[in-house]
Every structure is written in C-alpha cells, then in structure tokens.
User: Which sequence fits this backbone?
C-alpha cells in the first residue's frame, strides 16, 4: 500500500513543492487549500499523477475543517500515514501595534489554533490505527530570532516549536512520531512580502535573502526524503543548518543570485 500524505496549505509554495516530491516518490497525496479555485489550479498541475492525488478545500483554522480533511483522506486512500501542518499566514512588515485586529486574530487562528487542533485530531486517529507521523512546519521565530515587523508571525512560530516538542514528550511511548520540519528561508510569496517596499531596510534584507534563501525545488526533496525515512520519536528535520549557512556566506562573492530583484 502506498504511503498517504496529507499536507495543509499545499496549493502553492513549499506545501505544493512537498506534494509534488511525495508524488514523485510514489505516495498518495491529499492537497488542502482555503478555496475551491486554489484547489482546482493545484490539482490541474498534478493531473499526471492520476488517482494518487486528492484535494479538500477548507480553512484549516477551523477544527471541523481538519476533521473533514482527515475523513476525506481516509475515504480516498484508507488511512493517513503522514500529516504535515504546513498552512500558515504571514503579514506585511509592520510593527505589532500597526497590525489590524482582524488580521492579528486570523494569523493566530491559523498558525496556532489550527495547528494545535489538527495535531490533536491526527494524533488520536493515528494512535487508533497503530501509527503515523505528524510534522509541524517551523519558520522565522522558531529559534527565537527577532525581525522588526514580524513580531506576530515570529511569535506564532516560536509557540509552535514549543507546542510540538511538548506534545511529542507527552505522547512518548505511543506509535505516533511528532516532530518539526524547518525549511529555512524559501523563496515564496510569503517571503517576498517581507521585502515588498522600496525602503533602504528592505534593500538590505533582499541582499541577505539572496545569500541565504533557497528555491522550493532545492529544499522540498530533502525534507520529503527525511520525513519518509525518519524513525525518531520526535524528529527535527532542518535544511538550513549552521554548516549550510557558513557555506552560503563563503560562496556569496562567487554566486550571482537575484531572487529578490
């Protein structure tokens, strides 16, 4: 039986890249996006993989949406082997007191409430079926790094890291693996929005991102391979290690990269 993978927020960016990589490795994949239109566009790009692709629209900040997503995956493929909480909302570079209250609440609902609910739902189902893997996507702030204008987003990712480690500790001894994946700086629409203005500060960040960031096509295969192979109870899969960072800095004078023109 093929491994079945559910990826929230997988109609674009790193989520879509992971979906394609899992399909290339023979897995079944269930896509998720907030709208039917985003689902339609994503599935069209993967139509060559036939019946191994399924898709469920739904706002993952809703517990009911996570339940429906899990149920639909089981209905299509019989079980869920890997569940990846990738869906997340970012925001424009803005001091926290300048963020609209509605946007603030929505970011918290998706990045924290949604991930917590989905992790619990997936864990209980996998425990009942006899095993599985749950991965939560880290991001800026997961390691405590601070960036002005990203306090809200960074807070959600820092909280997510603690939640995952603590949940995994409570779940030790079960047959469910619960861990994190850290893609580092990936060239996506979310990262581009952090340098969308013409300020001098944005220009500096662009220079930094051009050195440190990587394209989805480079990161996704590595993360996919590691998730399929890991046997750790609480795996920590990281792309941008200290060694890679040092290598990027040393090679920077010899590489022409312009992701953020």
Assistant:
């Amino acid at each position: 039986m093929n491994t079945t993978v559910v990826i929230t927020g997988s109609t674009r960016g790193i989520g879509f890249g992971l979906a394609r990589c899992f399909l290339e490795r023979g897995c079944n994949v269930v896509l998720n996006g907030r709208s039917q239109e985003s689902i339609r566009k994503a599935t069209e790009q993967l139509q060559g993989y036939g019946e191994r692709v399924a898709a469920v629209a739904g706002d993952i900040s809703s517990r009911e949406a996570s339940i429906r997503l899990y149920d639909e995956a089981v209905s299509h493929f019989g079980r869920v082997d890997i569940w990846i909480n990738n869906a997340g909302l970012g925001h424009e570079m803005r001091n926290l007191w300048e963020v609209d209250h509605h946007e603030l609440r929505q970011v918290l609902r998706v990045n924290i409430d949604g991930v917590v609910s989905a992790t619990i739902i997936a864990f209980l189902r996998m425990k009942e079926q006899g095993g599985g893997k749950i991965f939560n996507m880290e991001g800026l702030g997961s390691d405590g790094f601070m960036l002005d204008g990203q306090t809200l987003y960074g807070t959600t990712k820092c909280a997510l890291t603690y939640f995952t480690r603590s949940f995994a500790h409570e779940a030790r001894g079960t047959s469910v693996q619960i861990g994190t994946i850290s893609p580092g700086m990936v060239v996506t629409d979310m990262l581009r929005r952090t340098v969308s203005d013409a300020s001098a500060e944005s220009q500096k960040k662009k220079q930094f991102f051009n050195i440190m960031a990587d394209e989805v096509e480079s990161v996704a295969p590595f993360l996919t391979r590691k998730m399929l192979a890991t046997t750790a109870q609480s795996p920590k899969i990281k792309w941008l290690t200290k060694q890679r960072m040092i290598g990027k800095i040393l090679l920077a004078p010899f590489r022409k990269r312009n992701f953020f023109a």
Summary: The chain has one domain: 4-187+216-241. The chain is about 50% helix and 15% strand. The chain has a mean pLDDT of 91. The beta strands are 4-7, 28-33, 53-57, 82-85, 132-137, 176-182, 236-238.
